[in-house]
Amino acid sequence: MAEAGPDAVRVVAYDARAHGHSVTADPAREYELSAEQQVDDAVGVVTALYGGGEAAGGPPVPPLVIVGHSMGGAIATRLVASGRLPNVLGLVVIDVVEGTAVQALPYMRTWLRSRSRSFASMPRGIRYVVNAGHVRRALSARISVPPQLVLVQPPDGGGGAPDADAADGGGRPHRRPRWMWRTQLEKSEVFWRGWFVGLSAAFLHCNVAKVLVLAGVDRLDRELMIAQMQGKFQTVMIPSAGHAVHEDEPFATAGAIVGFLRRNLFIGAGGDDGTSVPAIFQQRRPVVPRRV
């Protein structure tokens, strides 16, 4: 994204509920991961950063382009479709489509049971993610995996997580600290269908410029394929990537996003120093986005 110029855009990335280093004020609500709750969380982040905008008697919220991957793409779509944020100009959804996501849900339990549950060290956890193909680019995994693991001390008596990094999570109880997944995805199962069912209709309902970045054309379901042929949104394919498109091919993904911003006149082409600030980001009033 640096290609857009350091003064052209501000990138805000936050921990989703039950992810990363953040925790909820009420531990009992840590895994309240419904789409509605996560939309509330996103609105709260924007409000904390920029206030309530002119509707709340404050300065206008700057132009926003919402970006999300996988579950985050589903939440980004529902956030934009809700109309709760002012001055949203664009939506970037990375490798999540309702049809393929819903079809994959029955296999999620098997996938969760098959992955290693703990690791003797952080490097072993990173190596596992790369070797298992979850993230194909080792440098990306070194950045993205550490926030996904937490160091767990063995309980008194020597029981605890498995001592081996076996795929089935087996092994003898350990007496040493182990790195374990910070997010217990099993606890979110009740919300899985709510994230994805109706996603295609919500995406098409978003009255902003939008782009779908995919690892393969086979991920498009029928509803989106028809809409794409009608020119209702832009599609970018990065076939050399797996599901973690932005981690497997970070430069291609960033290029696709910057190209989307420029194509829709959200940012300018940039000067020789790459720092020109496009007029749209200097406007004091919300603008009406072009429809795609």
Automatic annotation (TrEMBL):
Top-level taxon in the UniProt lineage: Eukaryota
Keyword entries, A-Z: Hydrolase, Serine esterase
Catalytic activity: [phosphatase 2A protein]-C-terminal L-leucine methyl ester + H2O = [phosphatase 2A protein]-C-terminal L-leucine + methanol + H(+)
Stretches assigned to coiled coil: none
EC number: 3.1.1.-
Region (Disordered) residue spans: 154-175
InterPro entries found in the cross-reference section: AB_hydrolase_1, AB_hydrolase_fold, PPase_methylesterase_euk
The protein's enzyme class: hydrolase
GO molecular function, one term: protein methylesterase activity
Active site: S70, D95, H243
Domain AB hydrolase-1: 3-254
PANTHER family in UniProt: PROTEIN PHOSPHATASE METHYLESTERASE 1 (PTHR14189:SF0), PROTEIN PHOSPHATASE METHYLESTERASE-1 RELATED (PTHR14189)
Function: Demethylates proteins that have been reversibly carboxymethylated.
Family: Belongs to the AB hydrolase superfamily.
Protein name: Protein phosphatase methylesterase 1
